[in-house]
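agent> call fold_tool(seq_1)
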Amino acid sequence: MSCSLLEFCRLQELKTVRDYLFQSQKSEPAGEKTQTENELSWDSAEWESAWDGGDNKEEEATSAPTVEEETTGQSEPWLQDCVVSLSPCSDLLVVAREQKAVFLSAKWRSDDSGREEMTLAVTWTGVLSTDEGECVNSSICIPLASQKRSSTGRPDWTCVVVGFSSGYVRFYTENGVLLLAQLLHEDPVLRLKCRTYEIPRHPGVTEQHEELSILYPAALVTIDGFSLFQSLRACRNQVARAAAAGSDVIQPPPLAYKKWGLQDMDTIVDHSSVGIMTLCVFDQMKNASILGGFNASVKGSPPAMSQYITVGGGPYTGFYYAVEGSSQPLLSHVALAVASKLTSALFSAASGWLGWNKNKNEEEAVQKQKPKVEAATPLGIRFGLPDSRRHGESICLSPCNTLAGVTDDFGRVTLLDLARGIAIRMWKGYRDAQLGWLQVPEERGDREFSPSASLPRRHALFLVIYAPRRGILEVWAMQHGPRVGAFTVGKHCRLLYAGYRLMGVNSVTSQGWQLHTQQVCLLDPITGALRTVNIPFHLALSDKKSERAKDMHLLKRLTTILRSREVEPDILEQEAKSVLLDIKHPAIKKQALHSLLSNKNAPVSCLTNVTSALYDALKQQDPDEVDTPLLELCSSQLKLLQLYTDIQNLHSAADIEPSSTNQDSLDGIEEELSRVGPTLQRYAQLTSRPSVSFAQDSPDSHLPAQAFLSQMECTESGELKVIRTSETEWNHLGNFMFWGCLCGKSPVHKVCDTLQQAGISPQQLLSLLLSVWLQREKEMLQKPEETVKNLHTLLIALSNMKGAVEESWDTQSISPWWQQVRCTCIQSHNAAAALLAAFVAHCATKASITSRADSKLQSEWEAVSLELEQWVVCVRQLEDVLVLQTLLLMPPPQGAAGGAAAQCSIKTLLEGGTGGIADSVSKWVFRHNLAPERLKEILQKKEDKDADDKLEQTAGEEQKEQEEESQEDADRTAELLVAVCQRFPHSLSPDLLFAHCCWEYVVQWNKDPEEGRYLFWAVEHLKLVSSPHIQLGISTMMWSTFIVKRLSAAAFLMEKVGKSPKDRLCRRDVGMGDKAVTSFLGCCVQLLQILMEADSAVEEVPAPELSVEEVWFGADGPASIAELALDQRGVHYPPGATPLPGKNAFFGDLTSIQLMPSGDMDPGLVSLRQEFLLRVLTGWVQAIELSALLQVNPDILKRHLVCELYNQGLDFRAEEVMLEVEDKDVLGSQLLVLTGQRLSYSLLHSQSQTQAAMELLARLPPTLCTWLKAMDPSELRCPLVPLSQTSRLVSRLIEILPENHAQYSLALHLLEAVEALTTED
C-alpha cells in the first residue's frame, strides 16, 4: 500500500464556467489581458514563459484567438486568475472572478458502465458585486451542521462567504440568495478563513471555539462561530418565509465581531488564527520579564490568549497574541477616524499631505453614504521572523494547530513550529507553491498488534505541496520525515485545502457522527477531475528500520506476481514461498496468505507446498512467539487442500466399485418408474429444448481450488462447515463432490468415507447431493434407471453415516433426516427429479425401518405407518405436480399470447391456496389461446369415456388423412389437459376452471383494453359456468372491479357528446379506441344478462360445496375465485329510468340498496314516476275520446279493458267497467275463455294438485275436459286467483249470456265444476 491519487468527482460544463467568467475578454488579444493592470507586465510574462520552458508562449500573441485556440481553451491557465473555494464536504464549488461567480453543486449520475459517480454541475451563475468597481477578493464555503437528532453528519446547507475589495463581507445560500451583508472595514478584504470544532484527541488539549476570521491590509476581524451560525440560520429562515409570503426581506441586525488593528508590520497578505492557547508558567515569567523589566509582576494563573500568525513583509512572519477579555479603547468614531487617517498619512510613502487634503471632500461624501464602521483595537506584534528581502505569500495551518507551512516569493516552503515561534524546516524550488495538510489515523487492525494498543489512536501528519511550475504534487511526512509520495499532474491545477469542517458542531452533537469530509483536493481544469490524496498511516513509519514498511513492500510484490498471468507455476511457487517466509508481521503474513489462496492462477500443488512450508516454519518457532490464529489458518487450509486433492483424485481414478445395492429394494422403484415412464418421457422432451447459458455458470465447469476453499470453513472442534453463499456456487460444490458418483464414474463409498473423515456433517452432504440431483435434471432423465440406482446407493451411504439418522429416533415421530429430503422435494421446481428422489427416499426409508424392526425383533407398525404415510402423500403430490408441470411446459401455438412457462412445486401450489391449481391452468389456457368451446369439449372427454374414445378415433383418422403436426399437438395438449383434470377432480372441476379462466381473461383485458377479444372470451367462459351462485358472484366482482368505471365513463361521454364519440375522446375518457368501446358495450350487455339470469336462478339451486383432493388439504393461501364468488352478497337491482339519481344508482354497488340517507326513496324519483303514470292515464282517456273521431267502436276498447282487468286478477274493478259495455254476448265469449284458462291452471298446471281435484277432473264431461286441456294458462298475468272470484265470474257469465247462446251449456258445466271445487275447499 502506497500513496495514491483517487478521483472522486468530476466537474461538468467547465467550458461554460470559463466562458461566463471571461466574457469581457473573449475578443481581446491574449497578450493584452493584463496590460491595464501593470505597465511592466510584458517583462514578467517573458520571464515566466522562460521559466515554464515555453508553455505559455501563446499568451504573448496579440492577434485574436484562432479556432484551434478556442477548442483548446481549457488548457490555458485561466483557473489561476479566479477565486476558487470548495466545501470540505465536496458538495459545493465556487469559482469567482471580478464581479461574477459560478456555483457548482454535487449531483449523482450513472456512467457508461452503470456505476454511480458524483459530478459537480452548474446550479447558479450571477454577479455578486453591488457597489460600482468592487471585485471578489476571497471566498469560502462553510457547511452548516443539521440540528436534527436523526442527523449522521451530513450538512444541512452550505453558506458561501465572499469578501470584496470594498470591504464588504456578504453571505449567500447555495442558490446565490443574499442572506447578510456587512461592512466590517473600509479596506479590501484579503483573505477569509474559518476554524470549526475538532474533537480533542487527548485529555488536556484546549477545546477550540469556532470562528470566522477576515483579514484586511492592516486589520483582522474575527466573528464567533456560534453567533454566526445562529444568525445565518435565522437569516435563511427569514428569507425563505419572505419568499413564500411574497414580502420584502427584513434587514437583519449586524454581526457581533472583534477587530484588531495589526501593528508593527509593513505588509500583510495572509494570516492564520491558531486559537486559544495558555502559556506554561516558565514562558509566562519569561515574557513578563522581557516586556515589564526586572520589577514586572506575574499573575498567579497564565492568561488565555488568542494566537494569530501573519505573513507578508517587514517582518516576514509576525506572531500576535490577544489576551482574552481585553476591551477596546473608549475613543469616539470621529477621533479614531482622524487618528487612523493621520497614521496612514505619516507612514504612507506614496502620498503626501497635499494629496490627502485635495480629496478630503470626496472622502467625506463617500463616508456619509457608507454605514458606520467600528474602530479597531490596536494589537502589537509580539515577535516575528525578520527577513528584509523575503516576502511571505501564503500560510497554511496544520489540523493539529501546532505547525504551519509558509510560502514566499523566493520559491521556498518554510515549516514553522508555532509553539516555539521558529522555522524548523525549509524546502526550496517551489515557486508559486500551494499547500495542504493531511492527518491520517492509524488503522484499527494495526492498532491491535501495537504495544500501545490501550492508548488513543495515533495520527500521522503529512504536508502536501503542489508545485505548478513543475506540475508535481508531493507528500512529505512531518516533521523531518522523507517524501512519501510524488505525482505528476498538470501545471494549471489548483490545490484546494479548507482546513475546517462543519460549523455548528460541538462535543455533544458530534457523538456518533461520521463526518464525510475531504481534507485535500486537487482540481484539474483541463479534465475537470477532482482528486484526493490517499496516504496509508504506515508511511509515517517508513524509515530504514521499519519492518512494517518492508512487509508492505513484500506484500505489494506478491500481489504484482499474482496478477501476472505469464508467470510459470514453479517461479510463482518459489516467489510466493520466499515472500511469505520473509514477512515478519503476522497480520500482513495472513493477508499475503489470503491473497495467494484466493488467486485463480495458482495451481493446487503450489498452494499446498507454500502453505505447508509456512506451517513448518511456524512450527519451528518458539511456541510463545507464534501467532496462534495464523498457525490455525495454515492448518485448516492444508486440511481443505488435502480434501480437495483427494476428491479430485477419486473422481479421476478408473476403479469403480462393484454394485452392492440390494436388487429387492430396487424392485419397487422400477415398478414406479415403469408406471410414470410415459409422463417422464414427455416431460424430458419438453425440458430438453435448447436454451442460452454462460460457460462459467455451466455445472460441468471445473471447480477451482480457490472456490472450494472459499466455501469451506474449519470450526474450532476440527470439523468442516460448508458456507452457503450463492445458489450457483453451492451447486458447483455439489457437482464437484457427487456428480461423478451419480454418473457411475466414481467410487461411491470411497468418496463418502473421505467426506465423512473430513468432518463434514451428513446433513450438509445430503443438501449438496439433492441440489446436484435436482439441478441436473436433464442429464439425469437421459438414463433414469442408472442414475436412480446410483442415487439410491449414495443415499443409503449417507444415511449410514454417524449423525445422519439418530440412533435414538423415536418411532412415534418423524425422522429429521428423511424430513430434510421431503422438504427439499416439496420446494423444488424440477418435478421429475424431485419425484424420482422421492421414490428413492421412500424405498430407502422403508428398508431402514424394516431393518430397525428386525434388529429389535419386533414390528413397529405405528412407526411404519407414520413415516411412510408422509412419503405416500409426498409421492402422490409430486406425481400430480409432474403431470401439471408437463402441461404447463407445452409450448403455445404460433400467434398465441405466449410468455414464460410457469414453474410450480408442491410449496407454490399449497401457498397458492385452494385456487392455486386452477389459477395455473387458467394462465396456461390464456397462453395457449384456447377457445372456451374447445376447452368445454376437452373437459367433456373427461366426463364421458365413450365420447372420449370416439373423439380419439376421429382424431386418429383425421391425423392419418391430413398428417398435420398442428393437429397432433392439439390432440397431445388435450390429452395432457384431460390427464391433469383427472388427477385434480375437485380443484379442476369445470365450474372452477371456467371461473378462473374468466377471471384471467378479464384481468388480461384490463391490462390491454384494446384487445376486446379477451373480454368477449371472459364472458363466454362465464356462460359455461353451470352454478348460478358462482356465475352471480363472478359477474358481481367483474362488474365492480373492471367494468363499472369504464362503462360509466362511456355512458357519460355519450350523453355529453350526444352521439357516437370519436376515437380520440374514447381514448381520453374510456381508455380505449372507438371500435374497442363498441365491443366493450356489447360484452357489458351480455354480462348484465348473465347476472340477471343467475340472480333469478339462485333460489332454485342450492350453493355448490367446494372441496379439494385429499392429499392437497394443506393449502394455506388466498381464497379461490370461486370461494370469493360464493361470498358475494345478493344483487339489488337499481331503480331504472332516466334521471341523474338513477344513473348514479345504476353505476353504484350492485349489492347496495339505493335509498336516501333517511332510508326513504328519492322523492324526486317518486314524483317523476307519478308524472309518468298520470300521463299514461291521460293517454287512456284521450284514446277513448279519439275512438269516435277515428271511427273506432268505443265498445271494443271497453271490452278490452274489462278483459285486461280480469287477466290481472282485478275482478271488482272489471265488474264496474262491465256495466258500460253494450255488446254483452261478445264480452261473455271473451270472458268464458279467460275463465277456462283459470280453471285449467287450477286443475292441470298447478304444482299443488290435490286428490279431490283429480277426482273432480275425472267426473267432468269429456267435452269440458278436452276444452280445458286446450286452454293455455300462460297468457294469464295473474293465474293464482281465489276460487270465490272465479265462481263470481262464472255467475256473471250465465247472467250476460242468452240461453240460446252456443256456449251457454259450456258455461253451465263450468259453474258446476267451480261450485264442486269450492265445496271441497
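agent> call fold_tool(seq_2)
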Amino acid sequence: MLRLRAYRPTNDKIVRIQLHPTHPWLVTADASDHVSVWNWEHRQVIYELKAGGVDERRLVGAKLEKLAEGESEPKGKPTEAMRGGSVKQVSFYDDDVRFWQLWRNRSTAAEAPSPVNPHSSAFTSPAPSTRGRHFLVICCENKAIFLDLVTMRGRDVPKQDLDNKSLLCMEFLSRSAAGDGPLVAFGGSDGVIRVLSMITWKLVRRYTGGHKGSISCLMTFMASSGEALLVSGGGDGLLVLWSADHGQDSRELVPKLSLKAHDGGVVAVELSRVMGGTPQLITIGADKALAIWDTISFKELRRIKPVPKLACHSVASWCHPRAPNLDILTCVKDSHIWAIEHPTYSAITRPLCELSSLVPPQVLAPNKKLRVYCMVAHPLQPHLVATGTNIGVILSEFDARSLPAVAPLPTPPGSREHSAVYVVERELKLLSFQLSNTVNPSLGSTGSISETGRSRAESSDTLNVKQMKKHISPSIPHDSYSVLSVSSSGKYLAIVWPDIPHFCVYKVSDWSVVDSGTGRLLAWDTCRDRFALLESALPPRIPIIPKGGSSRKAKEAAAAAAQAAVAAASAASAATVQVRIILDDGTSNTLTRSIDGRNEPVIGLHGGALLGVAYRTSRKISPVAASAISTFQSMPLSGFGNSGLSSFTTSDDPLSSNRQSVSDVAPQNFQLYSWETFQPVSGLLAQPEWTAWDQTVEYCAFAYNRYIIISSLRPQYRYLGDVAIPSATGAVWHRRQLFVATPTTIECVFVDAGVAAIDIETKKRKEEMKIKEAQARAVAEHGELALIAVDGSQTIASERISLRPPMLQVVRLASFQHAPSVPPFLMLPKQSKVDGEDSGMPKDTEERRVNEIAVGGGGVSVAVTRFPAEQKRPVGPLVVVGVRDGVLWLIDRYMCAHALSLSHPGIRCRCLAAYGDAVSAVKWASRLGREHHDDLAQFMLGMGYATEALHLPGISKRLEFDLAMQSNDLKRALQCLLTMSNSRDIGQDNVGLDVSEILTLTAKREIVVDAVQGIVKFAKEFLDLIDAADATAQVDIAREALKRLAATGSVKGALGGQELRGLALRLANHGELTRLSGLVSNLISAGQGREAAFAAAVLGDNALMEKAWQDTGMLAEAVLHAHAHGRPTLKNLVLAWNKMLQKDLEHAPTMKTDAAAAFLASLEEPKLTSLAEAGKKPPIEILPPGMVSLTAAIPIQKKPGPGIQGSQQQPSKPLLLELPPSTEQPASAPLSGAPLSSPPLSSAANDPTASPVSSPALPMSSPPKSATDESVAPQESVQAQPASGSPPPLEADGQIEDQLASVPTQSPMIDPLI
C-alpha cells in the first residue's frame, strides 16, 4: 500500500515544491535558488535555471531573440540581467491549472447545505487564457519570471513595475474582467497585494489596507454563496479576506474581513472540502499551531499543535479512500508526513509515513538524518504526495488501487432514479441520483440532439445531476477502511473491514444483518447469491508507538508491536476460504468450510463466474522494502494496518523506473475454482489486481499493472487480446463494452470475440442436438412412424460462415487534461506583440465549438469529429457504476455522482452496436459526418454486423464490397466491383475485345483502357467473387464477373500467370468453352505461351495446346507433348527445335582455341585425328526418348560383344541418357550449347531396343563437359536427375498442372535446354 513512486537526489535541500495537475511535472527550488522542472514519470529533467542570480543562458537567448526580431539594443539594463534574489514561490500556470483551480473552488463550495448550484455537476469550462502555452512562474524577491515551457521564451517583471516592493508570494486569480486576461496577484513586503495582467504585463489593481507587515501567503476560494474570495496571511498574524470578483473598475480594493489567526505570523493557508458541509480554511503559523476556520461565519473551529515542539511549514487537505478518517496532512522539519484524524473532533495526529524507510539506505549518510522542508499533495490524484528534503525530492504513493466505500444497487425496471450505498464514519447511507434534464433519452433514442442542432454533450450546458443522500441503517460496527460489494441479484450488500477484520452481510430490503463474523476478504458469485469468505482468527491490535516518549516505553511498544505482527501472521496463515450461500428465506448456509487448495496463506479473493484465489508465495524482500513494510504495518491508523497486501508486491526495487508488470515478476500464485465443485479449473496464473466478469458470462477481464487481458468464455475459454491501459483501478461490463477507470482517465473498450472454428463447430453440434431432440419428442408423441420422411425436392440454401478475428477498440472518454488549443507561436508572426492577443480568444473558442457541428440535409445536425473531445474526469479515485439513461455514471470519494455523456454520434453508434442494436446504430449514423462512416463500418464489421453496415450512406465502394462479401450480398458486391473498375460495358457479348478490335477502337478506346486497368487492379476481388458465387450457387453473378475477367485476360500483359490460370479453370468450370477458346487464341497472339497452353489443356484440346507452344517459340514443350501423345507433327517439331538451338549456338560468343587446349582435349577424346578438328562441332541433334536420329543412316542391327561394347563408338549415334520412368513425362526448356573450345563427342551406336521400357533413353549429341564439371563416360548411360523434383504426369485428356512447362535440369554442361 505504501511505496516510493519516484526519487531524485539533490545536493542541496529542497525548500519550494509544486506539482502540475495534469502533466507529470514537478517544479522545485533549492536553498541555492536553483529551479528545476522534473518529469517524475520518465525521470527526466525538463528545464533548469538559476533564478536567484543571473542566468547567462537566458540573458544570451533574450539578446539573440531581440536581434532576430530586428529590435535595436536597449539602452537600459535588460530584465534578464537583474538578480532575482531569493526564490519565494514556484508554480505552473496554463489552461489546466486555471480550470482545476476553478473546479476545486466550485466543487468545495457545492458541498455546503445551500450550495451555489443544487446540482453537483461539472461547470462551464472557462475560455482558454494561455492558448496552448505552459508557464512556469517563479516569484523571486526582486522580480517575477514567466517562462513558457513550450517555446522556452521568458518574460521578467522586475519589482520596479510593481511599486518597487519585494515580492514574497503569489496567486492566480480565477475570475477576471474580459479585457484583463489571466491575472496574477503578488503579495508585497509592504502589506499590499498587487495584481498583474499577463496580457499587457501592467499593474491592474491593488489590495491595500489589510496588513501592517509583509504578506506571506495568498489563496483564492469560493464561498457557499458563489462569491470569489481572496484570502491572505501576513507576518502580523492576520488573516484577511478580499473580494476577487473584478467586474468593478475600482483600482484600489479594501478588505472585507480581517481576523487574528496566529501569533508570530501565518505560514500557509489551505482550503479543505468537507463532505456535506461548508468549506473550511486551514492555517498554520509560526506559533506551531494549526487552526481550522469556517468559511461562512469565519469562526475558529479547532486549534491544535500537531507536533508540540516543532512548527509546521506545509499543510495539505487530503482525502484518500484507504484512510477515510484522515483529512489533513502536514509536515515539520523531521522525517515524517503527519496526518490529522477528524480535525474538528478528536484531532489526533498520527505519523502517516516515515520517509527514511522509503529511500535506499546508501542515500543517507551514517550520521545524517532526513529532514522535510516542504510538502505538497497532488491536486487531482490524492494518492501522490511529494516532499522536498535535504537529500532530494521524494514522491510517495499511497495505495492507488483503493476505491471509495460505495456500491451501486440495481435500478428497478422503468425507474430513472438510481441508488448506491456508501459508508461514512459509522453510518450507512443511501445515495440517490438521476439526471435533472427534462428530456434525457435512454440508450438508442435520438432525442438528445437539441432543436438548435447542438448535442447536449457538446454544448456548454453539461449534464446536470440531481442527487440526494439519506440515512438508511443504524450505526455500523466500525469506522475504518471498508470494502462494499453487492450480490448478483442485488438483494444483499456485504461490507468488509479488512483491518479489523470483520464482515457483515445486509439484506437490502430491510437492512437487516444476514450474516457476520471475522473475515478479511469476501467475493461474490456472479450467477447466484453465494460468496466466498476468508475467515481468520482475530489478530491482536498493534499498539501505538508514541513519539517523544521515554526510550523504555518506546522499546516496550516496539516489542508489543513485534509480537502483534507475529500473531497476525500466524492468524493469516491459519485462515481458510469458506463458501456460503444465502437462500431465498434470507438465511446463510455454509457450503464448504475449506477449499482444498494449496497450503500457502490466502492473500486475495476475486469473485465472478469462477472463484479466484491468490496465495502468498515465498519471495526474497529487499531490506528497504522490509523496513518500509514493517514501519507501515506498525502504524495503528484508522483504515491502515496489516492489510496482507504490501505495495512492494510488484517490485522489490522502489527506485526502478521500468517497473515490470505483475505477470512478469510475480510468481504464478492465482488459482481459479469452480463454485459448484470447489475444484480447480485451471493452472496457476499470475495474480491480477482485479477481475471483471460479464453478467452474461461471455467475457472476462484480468487487470495487471500495465495492461488488461480480455478473454471470451463461450463456447470455451479463448484469449482475445490485451489492451495497454496501465494502472487501471476498476471496470464494469455493459454487454460488449468494458468501461475502465484509471487514476487519470476513463476508457471504454469495445470487445467482440469474432468467429473462430470452435464457434462454427459448436453451432453445428447444437443444430444436430436440436434435430435429435425434435426426433425424440416426435417418437415419444407419435411413435416410430414419426421418423418416416417423404423424399422430395428440397432446396437447401448454402450458408457461407466466414471466420472473423477478435476485435478490441479503446476509446478515451474523459481525462484531466484540457482540450488542446493552438499555441500563438504557430499562428502569430511574433510572440512579443501580444497586446491584442486576448481579444480574439472568445471568438476562436466559439468558432471551434461551432465547427464541431455541421447541418446536414433536412436540417439534421451532423457531428464533424470522429469522437467527441475528452470530457473532464472527476477528481480522485472513482467507482464505475455503469451505463444508465444513456450516460456513464461514476461516484467519487466525496460520494457525489457524476455523469459522462455518451451522446456523441461516434460514441453512441458504437455503444448501440456493441449492445446489439445495430439498426439504431445505423439510424444514429445519420448524425455523424459521412467521412467517418468508413471507420464506423469497419467497427460494425468487427462486431459482426456487416449486413447492417451496408446501410451506412457514406461508406466507400471498396469497403462496401468487403461488407457485401461478408454479408453474402454478392449482387451488391458485383455492382461495387463494376463501379470501382469502371467495367459495366466490358465483356458483353456484343463487344469484342480481341487484339485486332482493341487496336481499331476509336471513340471507346479510352473507356476500354480504363476498364481493363480497373479490372486488373481488382482481379483478385473478381476471382473471390466468382468463388463465393460458385459456393452459393449464384451462377449469374459468377458469369457476369467471368465475362469481364475473360475480356481483360485477352489483353497482352494485363493479368499475371497465376490469375490467367485461375481464370481458365473457372471458365472451364462454368462451361464457357467458347470464351476459353477465344482466350487461348488471344494469349497466343499476345505471346503468352505457358498461359495459353494451360488454358488449352483445361479445354482438352491437344492440337491447340501444341499450337500455343509452337507459335510462341516454346518448341521444347511442343516436342515433348507431341512425343508423349504420338502426334504426327513430331518430326517437324524436332527439326524446328534443333534448328533453333543450332541458330542460338552459332550466334553465341566464341572463344579462342589455342594449341595447348586442343592438345589436352585430344588426350581426353581419343577419337580426334588432328588438331584442326578440335574447333569444329557437329550439328546439334536432341531427340525425345526412343526416337531414331534424323540425320544418320539406319544402323545394322547387330549385337555388340562384351568386349566391343566398351570400345570405340560410332559418331553418328547420339548419347543415351537415362530418364525417369515414362509415367513422369518431363517438359523442357530451350537448351544452350557447349563452348566451342570443347572437342567433339563421338558415341558408339547403341540399340534403342536395348533400353528398358520403363526407363527410356534420350539420345543426344553434344560436346563433352569441361574439367570442372562432373565427367560423363561416353560409353555409359547417365541417369538424368531433375533439379526440382519430377514433373507431374501428362494425362491423356490433356489436363496438366501448373508445372507443365518446367523442365528437369540436366547436368550443366551437356544440357543444351538451359
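agent> summarizing second result for user.
The chain has a mean pLDDT of 75. The first strand starts at residue 2 and ends at 9.
agent> awaiting next instruction.
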